[in-house]
Amino acid sequence: MSTDLDTLAREKLSHVLRDHPDPASLDLGENLVDTYGITSLNKVLFLTSLCRAADIGLDNFTEDDLAGMRTLGDVVDTLRPHAAPRG
Amino acid sequence: MTASIINRIITERPTHDGSLTITALGHRTTVPLSSFHDRARAVAGALHRRGVGAGDRIGILSANRLEWVLLDVAALMLGAQTAGFEPGKFSPGADLVRRYGLDALYTDTRLPDDAPSGVLPISTVADYAEEDPDGFEPEQWTATQCTTVKFTSGSTGTPKGLEATVGSIDSSLNAVQSLFAHRPGDNILTFLPLSLLQQRYWLYSALHWGHDITITTYQSVFAVLPSVRPTVVMGVPAFFDTAKRHIEGVIAGGVEPAEAAAELFGDRIRYLWTGSAPADPATLGFYGEVGLTIFEGYGLNETCITTKNHPGAHREGSVGRALPGKEVVIDAEGIVCVRSDHPVNTAYTYAAPGESERMFQPGGMVRTGDLGRLDEDGYLYILGRSDDVIVLDNAKKIIVRPVETRFRDTGAVAECVVYCPSPAGLVAVVSPHPGPVDTAAIRDALAAVNAVSERDERIIRVIVADEPFTVEGGLLTSQFKPIRKQIAGRYSDRIDDPKAGLLVH
């Protein structure tokens, strides 16, 4: 599942970014604001899209959680415990 | 004038079924407005017992939350004034208390060690709401009394403080209601800071006219929109631009436009409200194409809502006609001036010397500083800011807003602010979109903009900002408007360096 979530997260972040870079090129450790220039409004759109695609309830997270998601890796790590295993 | 709405909402417990929802990521609370009224009265009683009363001033420095609006309505009941401070722009220390004459200050930020005794956590208000109102009865306001101090959001430097009269609030509420007829079944969603008085108008409207209201935050708004299913969304251009890009992406993935729009905004939208900054015509057109009606309006803190497109009178490209109780006049210099039957005020309470005189004219007229024109049917078109007029060596005046809008509308940049540091020509500082900067696209956009600009309006250099302009970074107001002076300050070295940035070849 973690691989699925990684892939989905990359795809959804690429979707939010204007030039839709190759999802594989996105670095899990880079800062979403400093490196990818994501705004607060885009960040919550990204999380919303990712949760919908991964079938994870948005109500599992708070604004503090969102603030703590500084990198793509943070996002994946925060969401992973809530992701249902897939066969 | 008819009975004051403010006086009615604090005196009369709602008998309708309207409700208030406070929500954000991870939480949602809905209370009937009748119950909200009871709690606000309890808060008023608790404050009264703690020595806060008519004529006092209560500061609120907090993100949007239930206690914010409980305090606001409780202060109205007490005859006390509120001063709403935008989070992140003020600190809850002794200086704030002293500077603005606060008798109490409630905040959600960590209290400094030397906080005065009147500075309290806003969570305290939830406890007040559980107390017995103990026979407390609301005060009544006169039309010229001021319920609140509102602060400009800072697009022109240090925030100015302006007290708002009850008459102006009543007048605006009645005028907006006459245009949009908000009613039971409507749910108005608002997410901008409650320190902006107009955001609280929707609560007052809900208390009076019985519709629902949802208050959230800009950090959470897109997460809660679909499940809240509002009928009206109060937004600003940057919000609608971001939503547009998202919906376009969903449509590109094969989803029907109306379905893609409903996926984000919910399926009950009656109309979208935009104001506070000029909307991109392409954005306005987009919402029409996906089946969502959007109405642009115009107003300043100093005038309150002045013009508005609405279902009964809507003209593309304009910001609508004057509301009942407002008169718009274009003066000899082309500047929009606004006269109100019930002025917000006739001077700032907190401002540098001369600021009040520049804005507030004799006869209740406010000289906005915006350049505009009226068409033959009274629709107002905003052309730019008079402050943003650049006078060239050849005495030609350039209104920079159309140049900036032209650049932004290419889609290559999120925002554009133009300066004229030397006679050599205009220099643009642009805010890139999130993600890697596409220099080639920005160069192409520059060429396209210059190709349709008059010679003196051509941009000779483009400074690409190091990161997108953001509210948190101090380069956008809370309503997402670029802060021209701050941007100039941040990038002054490069603006003044003739070799910096992308040059026109």
UniProtKB/TrEMBL annotation, chain A:
It comes from the Bacteria. InterPro entries: ACP-like_sf (IPR036736). This is Acyl carrier protein. It comes from Streptomyces spiramenti. The lineage of its organism: Bacteria, Bacillati, Actinomycetota, Actinomycetes, Kitasatosporales.
TrEMBL record, chain B:
GO terms for molecular function: ligase activity. Keywords: ATP-binding, Ligase, Nucleotide-binding. InterPro entries: AMP-binding_CS, AMP-dep_synth/lig_dom, ANL_N_sf. Residues 34-333 form the AMP-dependent synthetase/ligase domain. It comes from the Bacteria. This is Long-chain fatty acid--CoA ligase.
